[in-house]
Design goal:
Helix 1 packs parallel to helix 2. The protein contains 5 helices and 7 strands; from the N terminus they run βαβαββαββαβα. Strands 3-2-1-4-5-6-7 form a 7-stranded parallel beta sheet, with helices on one face. It is of the alpha/beta class and about 170 residues long. Helix 3 links the parallel strand 4 and strand 5.
Length: about 170
């Protein structure tokens, strides 16, 4: 699991904990320098079990990202739906490294580098095999240019008000 320090990274930490609770061996990489940790990230960091099923590593350089075996499933929880600028620095380098690998990549809510409501013309974005998006598909998923990065997506309801969604102009 590649976890940024925001709410999307907090979701990645929850996934890490739940997988470990079900007996999976999980390697979780917390990306340092991806912003100030949010309260959601911090709370889930503290809840993460520190035992043999979860290997934690703080990533401060793209060279610390391992070459994953081809059968690995990598969870992209680096950046979420709030992204509104091109990738740069460590996150940019990690996305380039990840995209060179032949693994199954599952994005949490939205692949890192994709903008929620418009096309990001920059070429560097996580190439997800699958995207598990919360509540509603993002507008950008409907753009043909996004398909190679979003892959197959599945909508996961998270209990948001249906009335609010129906009343939101779109």
């Amino acid at each position: 699991i590649l976890a940024g320090s925001g709410n999307n990274g907090g979701d990645g930490l929850v996934i890490s904990r739940l997988l470990a609770d079900h007996g999976y061996l999980v390697s979780t990489y917390a990306i340092k320098g991806s912003g100030e940790p949010t309260a959601d990230f911090q709370q889930n960091w503290e809840r993460l079990p520190r035992h043999k099923l979860v290997a934690l590593q703080l990533v401060t350089d793209a060279g610390e990202l391992p070459v994953f075996p081809s059968h690995a499933v990598v969870i992209d929880a680096m950046l979420g739906s709030g992204l509104n600028r091109p990738l740069k620095g460590l996150i940019y380098d990690l996305v380039v490294q990840l995209n060179k690998q032949t693994v199954t990549t599952v994005a949490v809510d939205i692949p890192t580098g994709i903008y929620c409501d418009e096309l990001n013309p920059e070429p560097v974005k996580v190439k997800a095999t699958h995207t598990l998006t919360f509540q509603m598909p993002k507008l950008s998923f409907m753009l043909p240019e996004a398909y190679p990065f979003v892959g197959r997506f599945e909508r996961l309801p998270i209990g948001l008000s249906g009335t609010f969604i129906a009343d939101t102009p779109a």
